Amino acid sequence: KQEVTQIPAALSVPEGENLVLNCSFTDSAIYNLQWFRQDPGKGLTSLLLIQSSQREQTSGRLNASLDKSSGRSTLYIAASQPGDSATYLCAVTPDFSGGYNKLIFGAGTRLAVHP
Amino acid sequence: GAVVSQHPSRVICKSGTSVKIECRSLDFQATTMFWYRQFPKQSLMLMATSNEGSKATYEQGVEKDKFLINHASLTLSTLTVTSAHPEDSSFYICSALPYASGGRYEQYFGPGTRLTVT
Question: How many CA within 13 A on the CB side of residue B20?
């Protein structure tokens, strides 16, 4: 059974720091991996999607890497800003043999960036 | 593009009543829609998967008679919480998988519905 773990559970940093959020998954048979952002009381905003054949994706100050064989992904946030404060969720789509339509979520990392 | 809406965004109902939540894909057709539930400070838990024109597939532990799902068209799915009780109070989020996803299998999420049962 696929399980997704995110470390740390919470993080508080001063503005301007570069951050690394970690995500690990137990079954390497995945189709893709996504990073989402969720603000309090709101839905999910997709940040980056990495296909299983890719190693990384970049969008602005965000860079996500994927090491499928070791079951790990990292989300790198450069030059953090108070507006980056939110919960960041990692989710995997299992490959076709594992129910490819389902997203399996980690518990999230709650990030607070203070001025 | 790829916008998903939910209605209502917030609902308060009395114990024993039923509540219907709508999920619409506004600018694309969705082969499959998903319903998730999220309790405070917890992650999303998949409740059920619905395909247009067929019965929903429920996850283990989710009561199908309590959470009725109807996927009437390629752009609309509804979740009805029947005989709601306070323990059903939660944040319900839907997502949609585009009919033509180009192999990305990327789900697009709605803004969520906050249900409070008093």
Answer: 7
